[in-house]
Specification:
This protein has 347 residues and is α+β, with helices and mostly antiparallel strands. It folds into two domains: 154 residues, NADH Oxidase, CATH 3.40.109; 129 residues, no CATH class. It is 36% helix and 11% strand. The chain is built from 14 helices and nine strands. It is elongated and about 70 Å long. The chain starts with a helix and ends with a helix. Bound molecules: cobalamin and iron/sulfur cluster (2 copies). One iron/sulfur cluster (SF4) binds next to helix 7.
């Protein structure tokens, strides 16, 4: 017992040394309510066309089923606190805003590498242990696990916040067959605050603690293929990749710690729409090499840029939009026609 407590303390020291801001541990069975909530979310269609969320749903809802031999889930948080408040960028209407997490190297790569370093260290200390490392893309519900492991609570915006580090953190998980001492689950501290619900440009929260991804700008600009509903386009403003609005207003960010990993902040937060609209496949790939933005591909990204041009009120951007009305990609051509009409006052 004392040995496991000692190992836990040394593991935490190692994780902090590798740049994580917090670590917590829970049992794989610690989130019994998650499966039902996931089922309700999927039944209501709130995942939109992220069909992968409805696959392997038994594993996603129940970490104990994902890997029955696992005895502990080690949850880790890594900070990407932006250097400046991202909200003023939304007033720079002739520029397109890239969400804070996507302004540098792809976090999937960086986080996974760090998780593997910590995982390998654990195996060196306890060679009888087996581990599996997960971040983001695996069928694991990281937010409820992080709450169960005491890292922080899921706020009304559904993202995990801590009183010590705010909400600008990525989450990662190491499952292990070792039975390590667990932490107490985190308690919720949103109280009467509704700042995140009120700021959301698309009213994507049907109720506190619940998100309808189909209305979330992060989903619409990153995940959703094809044209965006016309009713939602004006609400996208100048967001061209993701959205930070609900995170940026959370009062608990006054405790946000500085990002240790500066490779998350290589690019300016807002880029001229005129330059982004003319990207072809090759220049798009070159501009966003190694960044999460590359994930959308040129067509979806330029589609977003054209919605932002339509919302800009900047008539000097009309010509660039007009140049794309016959684009080979139908969603791009449709967005270009919409942007021109809106700038002409007809949209
Ligand atoms: C799918 C997904 C998305 C989708 C859907 C988001 C969502 N809320 O479901 C979209 C594309 C919209 C998205 C957006 C973003 N995402 Co995302 N996303 C995921 C992913 C892959 C799965 C999330 C999931 O399981 N959703 C399913 C539903 C059921 O979960 P949920 O909303 O959390 O639902 C819970 C609540 O509704 C709750 N609930 C229901 N009723 C009640 C009542 C009470 C009282 C309570 C307490 C709870 C509660 O129960 C549900 C289950 O716990 C995770 C990675 C992972 N593997 O976990 C990253 C993840 C959640 N995303 C992350 C980030 C950073 C973002 C963005 C900030 C990115 C951006 N800037 O554009 C935005 C934030 C938008 C927002 N407000 O959520 C981080 C969050 C880190 C953190 N600190 O929590 C994660 C964990 C990735 C990572 N590895 O770091 N994301
Ligand atoms: S990320 Fe933006 S659109 Fe999505 S819920 Fe938060 S404020 Fe709303
Ligand atoms: S803004 Fe307020 S309600 Fe929203 S998550 Fe932060 S504390 Fe909770």
């Amino acid at each position: 017992m004392k040995e496991q407590a000692d190992l836990r303390a040394r593991l935490e020291a190692k994780a902090l040394d590798e740049g994580f801001v917090a670590m917590g541990i829970c049992r794989p069975g610690a989130i019994p309510e998650a499966a039902g909530r996931l089922r309700d979310y999927l039944d209501a269609g709130r995942h939109g066309d992220m069909a992968w969320m409805a696959e392997r749903v038994d594993w996603r809802g129940d970490p104990a089923a994902l890997w029955p031999e696992a005895r502990s889930v080690i949850m880790l948080a890594q900070s990407y606190t932006p250097e400046e408040n991202p909200l003023p960028l939304l007033d720079e209407r002739s520029k397109g805003v890239i969400t804070s997490y996507a302004r540098g190297r792809d976090y999937h790569d960086l986080l996974k590498k760090k998780l593997k370093v910590v995982g390998r260290w654990l195996i060196e200390q306890a060679p009888e242990a087996a581990i599996k490392v997960f971040t983001d893309t695996a069928p694991v519900m990281e937010k409820p696990l992080a709450q169960a492991a005491g890292l922080g609570w899921q706020g009304k915006h559904t993202v995990v916040i801590s009183r010590d580090f705010g909400n600008w953190v990525f989450l990662g998980a190491i499952f292990t067959t070792l039975e390590l001492p667990v932490d107490a689950p985190a308690e919720e501290h949103c109280g009467t605050c509704t700042a995140c619900l009120d700021v959301c440009p698309t009213q994507a929260f049907p109720a506190p603690f619940q998100l309808d991804a189909r209305r979330c700008i992060s989903y619409l600009t990153i995940e959703h293929r094809g044209p965006v509903d016309e009713e939602l386009r004006p609400l996208l403003g100048n967001h061209v990749f993701g959205c930070d609005d609900c995170l940026a207003v959370c009062p608990w960010n006054k405790f946000a710690v500085q990002a240790h990993e500066m490779r998350y902040h290589k690019m300016a937060g807002a880029l001229p729409l005129a330059e982004l609209a003319v990207l072809d496949d090759a220049s798009f790939r070159e501009m966003f090499a190694g960044s999460p933005v590359k994930r959308t591909g040129r067509d979806r990204f330029v589609r977003n840029v054209l919605y932002a041009i339509g919302n800009s009120g900047d008539l000097s951007l009309r010509a660039v939009a007009a140049g794309l009305v016959d684009d080979a990609d139908e969603a791009v051509a449709d967005a270009a026609r919409w942007a021109v009409a809106r700038l002409d006052g007809a949209g």
